[in-house]
Amino acid sequence: MVNMQRIFYIIALVIGLLTVTNCQKKEEMPRFHVEISHPDNNYSVTPIKDSIATLEGVNAGLPYGSTSGHWADSGKRWTEQVGTPIGADIVYYSNYEDVFYHLKAKFPVEYMKEMSHRAYFDMEPEYFEGELPKYIDIRKNPHYESFYNHLVITCRVFEYLIFGFAPKGMVVVWIGYGSIRIEVGRYQAELVTDEKLVKQYEDRLIAMYAITRERKREIYGKRWANASSELWDNYRKRYKLRTVISSAHKGFRLFSNDIEYFNGETETLLRPYVLSTEAKERAIPEYLYFIFETGKGASYHTKVFFDWEKLYTILEKDPKGEHTLEIKLNATSDDLEAFLDEELIKTEGQYIGKNDEGRYVFRESYK
To answer: Residues 283-310: pLDDT tens digits?
Structure first.
């Protein structure tokens, strides 16, 4: 019987080779959506003047309206922007602080040029051969979609530029590839004190949103007026950290691990990288979501939540050393324990569920 997987792969290869010449003739500019987020709804801000600088000189900007969602994820999309973002000039009103800020941010140009031409995997492709690369350089592999995305989109290009607005003018910027987010940097907006500019911005607030500053004060009050950015700065602290997941079941096979960190970054680890995670600079994880099997028809998904303070206390004992966060499942796959540097830690919540048959299928799944 002909191997259908190999047939699909050959077809994809042929299509890719036929299209590569046309793709190389003209390198398209990156296309991305912009999100504006905040820690939660108590910390809403409203941009009133904005522009995003691009390497190509194309105009780009923020979505209309106030911030939403949670840290690094607004939950909203806006009109697609074009170009390689290299900076931002934003004036915004902090609703809860009752002040205006002016952000002038310059992103690292070479880094943005590189990252805007990468594609990351947030799922394992159904048909491919060889070892899965950590990412794709789409300038060198413009035909990558024919290899990896011909049935389901598993390899995501740069598609989000995300701003996070915290108290006291703190602004963090991330780039996103599907469910994967990587921090660009932390920036500081300046408090606007010039009375003439403040009056101009008040007038602009009314013109854009038909709401006065006085009405904003009535809505938000002063409960959070003295809020600090310290917590979100602390969330950005990094440690040389790896994650190890094991089981007492002899048939245990780990396939993927999605990690969300307190600093807003997210990471997806697939085989082979999920099997031997390297220790590298990472923020403290907020939760892990991983998929494993113990036999044919025995596929599970697991989510484990952590308390930042508990992990931070242990990590700060040796802030420059290497650390291991380990999850140990029992033989029946209905319970687990978490350890940081071999110290048992109490999780903030954990769930182990069995997957519907056929929902998650990997190359090395039990057949």
So the answer is: 999 999 999 999 999 999 999 999 999 9
Is-contact 292 300, C-beta < 8 A? yes
Contact criterion met (CB below 8 Å) for 120 and 155: yes
- The answer on pLDDT for 29 being more than 50 is yes
> Mean pLDDT in the chain?
92
What SS3 state is found at 230? Answer: helix
The pLDDT value recorded for residue 6 is 53
| Residue 309 per-residue DSSP state | H
Question: Rounded to an integer, what distance in angstroms lies between the CA atom of residue 254 and that of residue 160?
Answer: 29
Tell me the two tokens of residue 230: 């310290």
pTM score of the predicted model: 0.91
DSSP-assigned letter for residue 29: P
Q: CA–CA separation, 85 vs 59, rounded Å?
A: 10
CA–CA distance from 323 to each of 257, 314, 340, 342 (Å)? 18, 10, 7, 9
Q: Which two tokens stand for residue 244?
A: 């190890």
Beta pairing, strands 322-329 & 239-247:
parallel
Give, as one character, the DSSP assignment of residue 242: E
Residue 272: is the preceding peptide bond cis (ω within 30°)? yes
Question: 186 is written with which tokens?
Answer: 């932390």
Which one-letter amino acid corresponds to residue 248?
A: A
The whole-angstrom separation of Cα 19 and Cα 28 is 14
C-beta separation of 52 from 60 below 8 A: yes
